[in-house]
Amino acid sequence: MDTQTKLDKIETYVKQKFYNDPTGHDYNHMKRVAKMAKKIALKEQANPFVAEVSGWLHDIGDKKLFSNPAIAIEEMNEFLSCIDLSPKQVTIINEIISNVSFRKGKTPHSIEGKIVQDSDRLDAMGAIGIARAFAFGGAHDRLIHAEDKEFKDTATIQHFYDKLLQLKDLMNTKTAQEIANDRHEMMVVFLKQFYYEWNINEKKSDL
């Protein structure tokens, strides 16, 4: 089976798993991460196939999205074997997807893993990242913003400070760092405008 056919089958597999996800972890998120991973891999002289495949599959087994993560991973591995990925490739992909999460605080060992982690983090930034943050918050009944300390930590705006604004300084590759700078600035501008409107056009806050 040629490389493009394998990629087509993987895309179809992922589309079936995530097509209707309302939390910002949908098929299009996986597609953006996969394509970004390939783009960065080519610039960083890494393996574009491994990076792209791992980008497509990086959220398989995420406990936020799967009721039984172990079964999801097992099914993925069986699928990859059926489309003629080698045992070595399957092992590498598993290592990558098990370490990309921001929540786990780990860094993948391989350059391809670092690239997928960067690609996933880039998709949490900028205009798309802002949209995804509020999609996730809405799907989990979170407030947009809360001034009361009792509710502040579970509101979506707080997520910018807990995670999104930190991502710029956590990129592994030079290529991702350059992309992250622009997306970070987009979020800073958004937050200034948000507070301006939230406070009925009072002075814009400094971030």
Notable characteristics:
single chain, 207 residues, mainly alpha, 10 helices
Write the layout of secondary structure elements.
Blueprint: H1 3-18, H2 27-43, H3 48-57, H4 69-82, H5 87-97, H6 111-122, H7 126-139, H8 149-152, H9 156-162, H10 174-198
Helix pairs in contact: 1-2, 1-3, 2-3, 2-6, 3-5, 3-6, 5-6, 6-10, 7-10
Question: How would you summarize this macromolecular structure in one to three sentences?
Answer:
The protein is mostly helical and 207 residues long. It is 63% helix and 0% strand. The relative contact order is 0.11.
**H-E order:** HHHHHHHHHH
Number of helices: 10
Work out the strand percent.
under 5%
| Radius of gyration from CA coordinates | 18 Å
- Give the fraction of residues assigned to helices: 55-70%
Q: What characteristic shape results from the CA principal axes?
A: globular
- Low-pLDDT stretches are none
